[in-house]
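Lab notebook, bench 4. Still working through the backlog of constructs that have no structural model yet. Next entry is a single chain of 98 residues. Request: give me the structure tokens for it.
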Amino acid sequence: MEKVTDAMRSEIREIVYDFFAQECERDRNEITDLTNVIDDLDGDSLLFIELLQLIKKKYGLTVSMQSVGKYMLQNRAETVGKVIDLMIYVMENQQKLA
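Model written out:
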């Protein structure tokens, strides 16, 4: 399990906010941790997959999409804040999710 530092948390937050702003064509300042990805940003599950691939590549993670999907069935990530939490969980638990 990798310890995610405060600097990494901030970086992940920035990546997630920038990703949703760009992909959903929204002003970044409109997005908060409480923004609902589907209802407020018209996002879908494909966006999540793209974001996870981006995080995997940036941090060299070796997680299985199937394992992350199973985790998400019980831990839904409907808001931007929950997506950030999920990305941090994936980083901290990549051996378990490999």
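Notes after review: The chain has one domain: 6-92. The chain is about 55% helix and 0% strand. Flag for follow-up if needed.
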